[in-house]
Amino acid sequence: MMLQSKTPNYADPALHTAGLFIGGEWLPGDGVPVHDPSTGKVLGEVADASVEDAMRAVDAAEAAAAGWRDTPPRQRSEILRRWFQLMTEHAEELARLISLENGKALPDARGEVAYAAEFFRWYAEEATRIAGEYRHTPSGAHKILVDHEPIGIAVLITPWNFPAAMATRKIGPALAAGCTVILKPASETPLTAYAMARLGEEAGVPPGVVNVLTTSKPSDITSRMLQDPRVRKLSFTGSTGVGRVLIAEAAKSVVSCSMELGGNAPFLVFDDADLDAALDGAMIAKMRNAGEACTAANRLIVQAGIHDAFVAGLTKRMAALKVGAGYEAETQCGPMITKNAVKKIDRLVRHAIATGARATTGGEPLQQDGYFYPPTVLENVSHDTTIAREEIFGPVAAVYKFESEDDAVRLANDTEYGLAAYLYSRDLKRAMRVGKRLETGMLGINRGLMSDPAAPFGGVKQSGLGREGGVTGILEFMEPKYYAIEL
């Protein structure tokens, strides 16, 4: 039965500018403007936290830690379950709020809310299933008991591209494990985080268990929190460059790190692939959130025999997409997050064209209010161009041609990243054979979407440390304790 909430309209940006959320209280403040990327206009201002505010959040998390740690798993589970129900009840409002501050098209925003809520449902179930182990030593003379305990106060830093899902993917397992948290959302999309905090209050999350800070000084605040010995976990989703800085900062206090960093996903299409299925998958893998995703297909690597038909089909589909404000009903591709994001995409496309690529559709920024770049397909792209090395983070599909299986593997692995990859082939043996050779943390075989709260999400190489989601995700917020027992 769905809970009947009496809370106000969560789609209203003004509701979420009350201030910082610390220790269950809303502390007034402003100073950080939030823009609508569909128009460039200011939606409102949120509080600009200071280092002192961050320390108050750590104090609040510490004050709540013992009580939350000792809260029975079933009770923690029920709170997460109620949070899931409230997100589901307010799904349309949350989707419109996400679309307002992030710009993504409403269908994408609705999909994100559903995906985000599932993390609370999944970890509501996992909270009661935290396992240990009991066994004999090899000699048979002693016993080994292993328990799992909450790691402690966790600092959670989330990006702007999935403001709800990246928060729940961290908050869910942390709370299920018995940890208290401080969430620092991206300053571009803080309204969703504050909406989530309000729903958490309504779900029964005790004061201080979840704290939310927005700031224009993220490096100062994060550094200070990581220096505090009470903080024992950092979970970050964002760029590899920022991740390296945070890992170095965390190392000073030996803080455990989970890092979901950048990607440069290859999308391999073999000659024996189902062309329509591959095109369907490419549109999902490339255009989810208008390409502003770390798992987005960054390099579409297509075998020579199917290459021309694939480019033609992809061009037709990309050219047909309706570009507009994210919250307009007919929009299929919304704006980019900022003006600088458009400039970066334009730089990458211009360099690719200057080195021999050809745009079969799109290829230039749209001249209108807001931060728009049209769906674009590039063919004859050189593997030495900047666009092959950097995350595009936009609606640009760069297509490359390959001849043999070995060529495909070499091109796919020719990157410092290893987060996600996609492979289309009717030959499952080939798919598994190639999959084993790909340097990636996740692989979609004949699928353009792989994310699932029940599966471990994360990468290899410069794409991060640890995993989120699945059974593995909760262990990121726990420490195993070994008891050596003499009976």
Using brief descriptors, characterize the structure shown:
21% strand; 7-stranded mixed beta sheet; 14 helices; 487 residues
Query: How many DSSP H or I helices?
Result: 14
Give the % helix: 25-40%
Distance between the termini: 49 Å
Tell me the strand order in the biggest sheet: 14-15-16-13-12-18-19
SS class: alpha/beta
Give the uncertain stretches in residue-range form: 1-5
Shape: globular
How many runs of DSSP E, i.e. beta strands?
A: 22
How large, in whole angstroms, is the Cα Rg? 23 Å
The profile of the biggest β sheet is: 7 strands, mixed
Strand proportion, as a percent range, falls in 15-25%
Mean pLDDT: 96
Commentary on this structure:
This protein has helices at 51-69, 73-89, 91-102, 106-126, 165-177, 191-203, 218-227, 240-251, 275-287, 304-319, 339-354, 405-413, 428-437, 470-475, and strands at residues 20-22, 25-27, 31-35, 42-47, 133-136, 143-150, 153-157, 181-184, 210-212, 231-237, 256-260, 265-269, 297-303, 358-361, 376-379, 396-402, 417-418, 420-424, 442-445, 460-461, 464-465, 478-485. It is an alpha/beta fold and 487 residues long. Residues 1-5 have low confidence and may be disordered. Helix 2 (73-89) packs antiparallel against helix 5 (165-177) and helix 3 crosses helix 4.
